[in-house]
Design brief:
By secondary structure, the protein is of the alpha/beta class. It is 49% helix and 16% strand. It contains 27 helices and 25 strands. The strands form six sheets. Strands 3-2-6-7-1-8 form a six-stranded parallel β-sheet, sandwiched between helices. A hairpin with a 2-residue loop joins strand 4 (85-89) and strand 5 (92-96). The chain starts with 5 loop residues before the first helix and ends with a helix.
């Protein structure tokens, strides 16, 4: 139970003190937050930095983007600017903040612009806000800028308002750790005027922005989001300050609403009322249930109503909270004081007026103790119950436990025997304690009803055997009558208290077991990576905890189909299929024991998330035709189903992301293919048409040398066109899986010679060296495919190596492999491209003098070599410039001897 002492109420909150200690151990973070680009965040950050320099602090600039704004560039004068680190990415040299240089410099304050920026690949952190967190952890203060559209939780809202999806976002946790958030506000008209004046973007970009993002409606909505986010952060800081300094609220700087609920049906209407108040006040709100000692006596229907009401609060956007305590009003006031609550909603009294003379109602008590907190006493209506789920629940029947009453009789008999023995030495009034021990023992071991039976039996035995006149039920001594009366009263009260404690302990053990099972289930779901694993874990957990048979159904091709079951079962009759489909389409329970389609064999519940139903659970058991679940089991089902639905949605979202990536990759390949076809197909065709047209029109006037040169152009470009089309066909075969190499043993020298003859024209301006030993073992390859691989590698080397340089083709054998290498003396391959040169349509950036390629040749090489059970890798030569491509083929073990061939 919570500590109710006055000292506890005046103590600071441990959580608030811990947060304060964390903040003091790191650097301070100040965020200059704006509604849109151009409001002056960077300018204000530089002005604040200058003020810190004037105060004697050591201030440096980590990164500031001026975007060509002269007034911002002028403010940079006088600042020490840490040089940025250069990062090479995709052939471009990018500049990023040098976090190591800042840590080595250790200033008091560093200015970091654009917190949501994505760092270049190869940087220490992928995001700039991670750089900032590292600086803060090292004790360095940071000033930074951020636009409201980059806050993660508002990403969808901003996208809905502006119709533009912002890809670079910052987690809300980064904004939450900020010590200060300063809103940089500018009216939409002033910002649009700055845009017209060219103070935000260059003219062409400004024109597009005015018709798209920078409309008065968009800017007004973004401005409101920025102001609300700042107000929310300030409200959280105020709450932390009050908790850290043990200040009792409320301080009505911001509104907070709390509604007190109980097991009565009207609680649903109280929750809806609190939701409406919070919406009008634009305030956070919570529904609180105070679990007192009397809660143990609630019926299953009452517990179910409480769970349903808390669930309703979450659905309406509130926070559902359960607090253990002694009295409802005390716990509500304690929570209100610590959370700075300004409004409390509670139901009006329903008890008889005469009871008010003995005990005030919670509403009256709350009004007396509320102080400055507004109390809303609402009558509510029982018709707005949220507990009705359209499913009948089974109620365990209270059976007469003969064994328990027999054991209670034994306890009383033992006490009677002990009383007979002790009657010789004790006064008769002290013998009542022996019977009281029997009553308490019965209450602890057997429960309340057997204990009450033991009370009556003990009183009768005590009267019959020990009170004069003995062996009768009459009592002659008035003092004995009084003693018997008090004995019976104490026994009833003690048995009731003992049984209550016993029930509370049993409920606590059951709750601990359920919590442990739910925790293990959540861990199991978190560790699963496939949909089948999630479905199997869910089916097994539901079956083991609810003692039922389970089937799980997911949508498939505009219908719903069984995907898992425990025990395994994939057959449903027509009634079950109809019930499952209805539950899926209407997001409501159907089937056995439900209001809809009760003739089905199973009971079907939808698996719901915030985005809707993701599947359906079907439950069945052998317990007759009545309702399947008790209210407690239904609440447990809700918890298990929520976790399973979130896990299924997570797997589906991952699959959606993968599909989106594949679609994006397909679009990229399609674009590259169209680009390649438009260039690599059009260029040789244009050359062929030009040369052929010249020959046709001016054949008689051309010299013989010119005619031969034009014919050579036609032939060369035709061969180039033929190679391009052949590459496309080969790539199609590889990607479709239709490539079937014709493996056979061949001497590598023959294939190398054929490849060199094909590439003679391509290599005409280079020196060629071939180092293939005569005793090189035979290789098991498809000669046509292997020749094409060598030709593509030689063609690639000729493209990148300068004219007059040497291209080398080496071959050798080791213990289990035959290795071939093609080496050139070109610029080599950038390190970032080594893993990508074999990707389809990927081309390394090259100079203007290098003839263009399709981006297919090396991809085809990899496909052909892997089809022949080999590997191919790319690298750079050591000691000099140039690329090297290495082919490794397995060394055949069944090479026939020469005499066998003869």
């Amino acid at each position: 139970m919570p500590d109710d002492s006055p000292e506890s109420r005046s103590r600071p909150s441990p959580d608030a003190l811990l947060e304060k200690a964390r903040a003091e151990s790191r650097g301070r973070l100040k965020i200059f937050l704006g509604a849109a680009p151009g409001v002056g965040k960077t300018y204000e950050m530089l002005v604040s930095g200058r003020a810190k320099i004037a105060d004697g602090q050591d201030v440096v600039v980590g990164v500031v983007e001026t975007h060509g704004r002269k007034e911002t560039e002028a403010l940079l004068d006088g600042f020490e600017i840490i040089p940025r680190v250069r990062v090479e990415y995709k052939g471009h040299v990018l500049e990023e903040m040098d976090i190591d240089a800042i840590l080595a410099r250790r200033p008091d304050l560093v200015l970091v612009d654009e917190l949501a920026h994505t760092n270049a690949q190869g940087s220490r952190h992928p995001k700039r806000y991670l750089d900032v967190k590292e600086l803060l952890d090292r004790g360095i203060d940071v000033y930074t800028t951020l636009n409201i559209q980059h806050v993660e939780s508002l990403n969808d809202v901003v996208s809905q308002i502006t119709r533009i999806r912002v890809r670079e976002t910052v987690p809300d946790s980064v904004v939450d750790i900020a010590d200060d958030v300063e809103i940089i506000d500018l009216t939409p008209d002033d910002l649009i005027k700055r845009l017209h004046d060219g103070k935000v973007y260059v003219p062409k970009t400004a024109e597009r922005a005015l018709t798209g993002y920078f409309t008065p409606g968009n800017l007004t909505a973004l401005r409101e989001l920025a102001l609300r986010k700042t107000a929310q952060r300030v409200d959280d800081q105020l709450l932390n300050h009050m908790q850290a300094h043990a200040i009792s609220g409320p301080w009505a700087a911001g509104e907070r609403v709390v509604v007190s609920i109980d097991h009565h049906p009207r609680s649903a209407s109280l929750v809806r009322y609190a939701s409406r108040i919070a919406a009008r006040l634009r305030a956070p709100w919570a529904a609180i249930y105070v679990e007192t000692a009397r809660s143990i006596n609630l019926t299953e229907a009452g517990r179910d109503a409480i769970a349903a009401t808390l669930r309703l609060a979450e659905q309406l956007g509130g926070e559902a909270i359960t607090i253990p305590g002694r009295e409802v009003v005390e716990e509500l006031m304690r929570y209100a004081a610590t959370q700075n609550v300004t409004h409390i909603v509670i139901g009006s009294p329903r008890r008889a007026s005469w009871r008010e003379w003995f005990q005030r109602s919670p509403a009256d008590e709350l009004i007396r103790k509320a102080g400055d907190i507004s109390v809303h006493v609402i009558a509510g209506t029982d018709k707005e119950s949220s507990a009705d789920r359209g499913v009948k629940t089974s109620t365990p029947s209270a059976t007469f436990q003969l064994r328990a009453y027999a054991l209670a009789t034994v306890h009383v008999a033992v006490a009677l025997a002990a009383g007979v023995v002790l009657d010789q030495v004790l006064d008769v009034r002290n013998l009542a304690l022996v019977f009281l021990m029997a009553v308490l023992t019965t209450a602890v071991t057997l429960g309340l009803r057997p204990a009450l039976y033991a009370c009556v039996a003990s009183a009768l035995a005590f009267n019959f055997f020990f009170l004069p006149p003995r062996y009768t039920l009459t009592i002659s001594d008035p003092e004995s009558v009084l003693a018997l009366f008090f004995f019976l009263g104490v026994a009833v009260i003690a048995s009731n208290l003992t049984a209550t404690v016993q029930r509370q302990a049993a409920a606590a053990r059951q709750r601990a077991r359920t919590t442990e099972d739910l925790y293990l289930f959540s861990r199991k779901l978190a560790g699963t990576g496939t949909l089948d694993d999630v479905l199997w874990a869910t089916a097994f957990q539901l079956a083991s905890m609810l003692k039922v048979r389970v089937v799980l159904l997911l949508p498939e091709d505009d219908t719903i189909a069984v995907k898992a079951g425990y025990p395994p079962d994939d057959t449903l009759d027509d009634a079950d299929i109809a019930a499952a489909r209805w539950a899926w389409e209407h997001n409501h329970a159907a089937g056995r024991g439900a209001d809809t389609l009760p003739g089905a064999k199973r009971l079907y519940f939808p698996l719901r998330t915030g985005r809707g139903a993701v599947g359906v659970i079907g439950l069945d058991s052998d317990r007759g035709d009545g309702p399947l679940l008790t209210p407690e089991q239904q609440r447990l089902l809700d918890a298990l189903a929520d976790q399973a639905a979130l896990a299924i949605e997570r797997i589906q979202l991952v699959a959606d992301v993968d599909r989106a990536k594949l679609a994006a990759e397909a679009d990229r390949l399609r674009s590259a293919l169209l680009t390649s076809i438009s260039h690599d197909l059009k260029t040789p065709l244009a050359a062929i048409l030009g040369a052929a047209g010249t020959l046709r029109e001016y054949r008689e006037s051309l010299a013989e040398v010119d005619r031969v040169d034009l014919l050579s152009t036609v032939i060369d470009e035709s061969e180039r066109l033929n190679r391009f089309i052949a590459n496309l066909l080969d790539m199609t075969k590889i990607e479709s899986g239709a490539m079937e190499p014709n493996h056979a043993l061949h001497y590598a020298g023959d294939i190398v010679g054929s490849a060199l003859r094909r590439s003679a024209k391509i290599l005409a301006h280079h020196k060629m060296e071939v180092r293939i030993p005569a005793d090189l073992p035979m290789i098991r390859v498809d000669p046509v495919l292997f020749e094409q691989v060598l030709f593509n590698l030689l063609d690639n080397a000729a493209k990148y190596a300068p004219e007059g340089s040497t291209i080398r083709l080496d071959g050798w054998a080791n213990s289990d492999q035959v290795v071939f290498q093609v080496l050139d003396e070109g610029p080599g391959i950038p390190p970032a491209d080594l893993d990508r040169v074999f990707d389809t349509f990927y081309r390394v950036r090259k100079g203007d003098q290098v003839r263009a390629g399709t981006g297919l040749g090396l991809s085809i090489c990899r496909g052909f070599i892997e089809a022949m059970n080999g590997t191919i890798t790319a690298g750079n030569r050591s000691g000099q410039s140039g690329a090297v491509f290495t082919i490794r083929l397995p060394k055949p073990i069944d090479i026939p001897r020469l005499d066998e061939l003869k």
